[in-house]
Structures are given as C-alpha cells and as structure tokens.
C-alpha cells in the first residue's frame, strides 16, 4: 500500500470531492495505512444515510471502506481529514 484515496459523495451541495495521499512521502503514513487495514476488515452494517449527508469511500491496497457521515468518527475522520483537508469535512 502506498496510496490512500478518499472520495466524498453527495451532501447538501451535491458536489463530489476526491483526494489522494502518498503514504511513503507523508509523515505518519504507516499509521494511516494501519487505520485502513483495521477498518477494512470490520464488517459494517448499512445505515440509512440522510439525503443531505455525504458518504465517504476510502480505498487503499485492495481495501475499500464505505461509510456514511454519521459513521465517520475517530481515526476514520482523522484519515479523511488528512487526505481531503478542509475540503472533505
């Protein structure tokens, strides 16, 4: 794994926002990869998303994590913020 991609879809404005992060060139990149691995292995129950609430797709090293805005907490929120910056939250 050397790249983490995050896409935010939907939300009130309906605009998609995407970003990429090269973990080899980013301080703390190994920890961000570990977050993806931990959460990629956990089963998630689908939650009904509000029509105004965005959803997030996180992809790295064959892992794909999809979460609603209400599920975006803790270290997943940290990861998204690192990849998208202020554009994604």
Q: What's the order of the H and E elements?
A: EEHEEH
Q: Please give the alpha-carbon distance between the first and last residues.
A: 24 Å
| Strand content bin | 25-35%
Number of strands: 4
Largest sheet: 4 strands, antiparallel
The percent of residues in helical segments reads 25-40%
Mean model confidence by pLDDT: 84
Uncertain residue segments: none
Number of separate domains? 1
Indicate the overall shape. globular
Q: Reading side by side through the largest sheet, how are the strands ordered?
A: 2-1-3-4
Tell me about this structure.
The chain is an alpha+beta fold and 89 residues long. It has one domain (3-87). It contains 2 helices and 4 strands. The chain has helices at 29-40, 74-84, and strands spanning 3-9, 17-22, 55-60, 63-68. A 4-stranded antiparallel beta sheet has the order 2-1-3-4, covered by helices on one side. 22% of the residues are buried.
Outline:
The protein has 89 residues and is an alpha+beta fold.
Helices and strands, with pairings:
Elements: E1 3-9, E2 17-22, H1 29-40, E3 55-60, E4 63-68, H2 74-84
Antiparallel strand pairs: 1-2, 1-3, 3-4
Pfam families: Emfourin (PF20242)
Organism: Tenggerimyces flavus
Region (Disordered): 1-30
Brief descriptors of the model:
single chain, 89 residues, alpha+beta, four-stranded antiparallel beta sheet
């Amino acid at each position: 794994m050397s790249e983490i991609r995050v896409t935010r879809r939907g939300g009130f404005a309906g605009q998609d926002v995407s970003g990429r992060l090269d973990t080899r060139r980013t301080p703390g990149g190994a920890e961000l990869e570990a977050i993806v691995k931990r959460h990629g292995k956990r089963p998630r129950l689908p939650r009904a998303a509000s029509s105004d609430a965005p959803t997030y797709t996180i992809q790295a090293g064959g892992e794909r994590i999809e979460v609603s805005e209400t599920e975006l907490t803790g270290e997943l929120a940290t990861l998204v913020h690192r990849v998208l910056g202020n554009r994604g939250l």
